[in-house]
C4-dicarboxylate ABC transporter
Amino acid sequence: MFWLEIAVLLGMILIGSQMKGIGLGVMGMVGLLIFIFVFKMKPTDPPIDVMLIIMSIVTTAATLQASGGLDYLVNLAEQIIRKNPSNITFIAPFTVYFLCLFAGTAHIVYSLLPIISEVAAKKRIRPERPLSISVIASHLALTGSPMSAATAAFVVVLAYPGALVDIMMICIPSSIIGLLIGCFSVFKSGKELNDDPIFIEKMKDPEFAKSLDTESESSGTPLKPGAKKSVVIFGVAILMIVIAGAFPDLLPRFSPGAATLAVAKDGSLTMVTIIGVVTLTASAMMMLLTKTSAAEVTKASLFTAMASAVVSVFGVVWMSFTFMNHNQKLISEVLGEAVAEYPWTFAIAVFIMGVLMFSQAATTKTMMPLGMTLGVAHPALIAIFPAVNSDFVLPGYPTLLAAINFDRTGSTKIGKYVINHSFLIPGVVAIGVAIAIGFLLGTLLL
């Protein structure tokens, strides 16, 4: 029966991931329906906490976008990339990493991918190199950013004072080191651009050749009047969340009682409350002080993407939670001993689930509670956290497809066997190194 149940679980995830958008969520609900009415599983509580966190954080990021703050940040990043064309394989991914770390979303990378591709091609550097590792950088930044839904969900799962600071203290430096090694892994990958037969063929087109030989200036997107002000407000919100996570004693505390979404059993505020109140207050301040209308925020692309994220988490995580809870004893018997003796093996399970779910937040909310049930210690779980970024393995994630489409030279591509694409090696290397360094840092710092 277990194998039939897991076939349903994986089948719904695979079908949903192919449908894109809200497909993962609605197919998750189909799986939940089957679990409840066919297999008679008792449903768990839906993941309301993660859904509220996603709504709060993405709304704030969408407000930053609508007020011009994201354009300002992209302009700064573009200037950095264009000033160092010869070292673009290293400069671009680190620029992308810190930009996404601040913004808490990987989707900001879309604005930089065509710039990275263009600068690399003009310098006759194979665009596949900086593009592939830059996409991985945009994903890695989410496991450490206090403004990412995945990190916020992980803080809720860990549920101990100072969890956010511990995650940042381990995951940010380990991801930076992983990213650096990832850059080296692609530094000489593939043929040099001038020796690539596809590029040579493209250069026979006079217009294509002229476009690469013509110097182009920075896009210099006109900024809205309140762009810089919105970035400052967003930065203050990040700082407040970090301080709240680092110094919980500074926050109001109420009488102990039954735990709720807003207040923990000991009377302390939950991270759902802290993140929701701080981020949406920041959104209000941005709208008021930059004269950005609420209608502009709801039209922002990030706000639109939020609906898909919430529906996906609602369906697939609820289905997965129900399956895990129903089979908790069996899963603990099968995995418990191995994971207890070799905690790093749990990273493999997290990585595989991340491949299927196409969502860091959903993978975090599904797998990290399982890790705690199996007895994986907090430092080990934090070290394993970057494994949720494995959504690059199957080349269907939007950031990967965008990078392929923006590379006019054709060097960034999907291979004959689908998974042998441009992003596989840098992704596996960067995440593998990040996890290894995370275990080392966890031993030293926690």
The chain has a mean pLDDT of 90.
